């Protein structure tokens, strides 16, 4: 999934020295970065148990549950298909292990949920056990209602010890899912920002104005400028959005209540120099266009190995109605959570527009310049 992180929103706002170690596979801590502010992770909400709640804010983007199921399946097949260059499953598994041991980077096979889904699909592609795609334990445990369990912090990657029992109780006694759904809804209520993948442009615009404008103002306020008038000009430019309607995604943020010393003033100045909400949007649009082209080319290359597989929006329209109804039934919690997220999104939009057209438009829309700088925890929900 294309993310705001990949396409520069947060990279433009935070210098690399302010990024926490990327925690795609597990929570990572670097003692040399005690004041890091941006954490990127694929963990579920249970990660919050490892962080100071009073200093942590969360943002996320939800996706239409039907599209999420299709996307999860298609991406798992796409990555698994890359291993079909090997003569058999044993060879593919050994090679993957050797490559991962030689690199310091994080592989797709290290990231939840792909570290479970890709090996499962890889084995399936080699063995052609088609029935497992519909009713296998991995799909029940990870894919269906995956967004609800992730926001509730109850995935099979959870820091909560009881998550496995709770999840399987819900699978066995579906009425209990209503309680998990209510927990997920309350957590969305408490998030700083909730976006929608399907409303890509509007989500990006809102993200830049709700989060970007405030972060720019706070970073500038934290930088000891010798020119107060320059500082005021920068704050004003960050709060008056010269933007085009644009957006789409979901994440999680950490906000410090107590002021922290920024480890590198130079990095902060380099990051927010002449930065505005409009420039954030412009950088994002440029990035996402090239990123999507690169992803499309890679997908075409991967799927050649399992031709005539055709993962397109047009191909999804050919899926029988009975299959769509089964997906809806298996993801009933996610459908309700998505509807709730749409309501939150609508309220956020109205609030933002009210602020933008108000008498104080020249002031920062969400300016807390006297408060502490933001620490951001980014959680990606597939």
UniProtKB/TrEMBL annotation:
Residues 223-240 have a biased composition (Polar residues). Residues 223-247 are annotated as: Disordered. It is found in: Membrane. It comes from the Eukaryota. The keyword Transferase applies. GO terms for molecular function: heparan sulfate 6-sulfotransferase activity. It is a single-pass membrane protein. Signal peptide: none annotated. One of its GO terms (cellular component) is membrane. The keyword Zinc-finger does not apply. Keywords: Glycoprotein, Membrane, Transferase, Transmembrane, Transmembrane helix. PANTHER family: HEPARAN SULFATE 6-O-SULFOTRANSFERASE 3, HEPARAN-SULFATE 6-O-SULFOTRANSFERASE. This is Sulfotransferase. It comes from Nyssa sinensis.
